[in-house]
Write a structure and sequence with these properties.
The chain has 181 residues and is of the alpha+beta class. The protein has two domains: 7-69; 76-179. It contains seven helices and four strands; from the N terminus they run ααααααββαββ. The longest helix is centred in the C-terminal third of the chain and has 19 residues, at 136-154. The radius of gyration is 17 Å and the shape is elongated.
Length: 181
């Protein structure tokens, strides 16, 4: 029997258990094991199966919660540099300017009420080497990543919304970030 030791597979199982879906997670894991040695094509195929399973078995809010909680965490150095830019800023517009000057591979915009984080390409090293699309369920993980980052940077809870995704055939990834009031 194949090991199910790939970090993304482990995080998915842990997230499903956290969201009271342990039995479903075990079923999926047993039927679709993913080893740490899987190549990029095997990972991409697993990602598609993951999305199909989640979308067939859960409502969109549950899928979003599961995927957000199994997101990779942002690198500390990156979030700290963005936090430093925020702390040194005099306004949201100044924060956007300072963050964009860091040239971290993404950029920010501000519309007067919300920030928008944009990526020019898919940075998910789990699926970005395959030129094919994925359902939005896969990209909900970027919401978890973004929420972790901006909750830390802004020092308060944020709401995040997936607007566009390269893996859904858009020209960029775009995430709306709104401070909770």
């Amino acid at each position: 029997m194949a090991n199910n030791d790939e970090p993304n597979a482990i995080r998915l199982m842990e997230s499903m258990e956290k969201h009271s879906q342990k039995e479903a997670g075990e079923k999926f894991s047993n039927e679709n094991p993913l080893e740490a040695t899987a190549d990029i094509k095997e990972k991409f195929a697993w990602a598609k199966k993951t999305c199909a399973f989640l979308e067939e078995n859960f409502d969109d809010d549950t899928v979003k919660a599961i995927r957000m909680d199994c997101a990779c965490g942002p690198q500390y150095e990156w979030i700290q540099s963005v936090k430093d830019a925020y702390d040194a800023s005099t306004s949201p517009e100044d924060f956007v300017e300072k963050t964009n000057a860091l040239e971290l591979g993404y950029w920010l915009e501000y519309d007067g009420t919300s920030y928008y984080l944009m990526y020019p390409q898919c940075y998910c090293d789990f699926v970005n080497q395959v030129e094919d699309t994925l359902p939005k369920a896969w990209c909900y993980c970027t919401l978890g990543y973004t929420k972790k980052m901006f909750t830390y940077v802004l020092g308060k809870e944020v709401e995040v919304e997936l607007i566009k995704s390269v893996k859904m055939s858009d020209k960029e990834c775009r995430i709306k970030i709104t401070e909770k009031v």
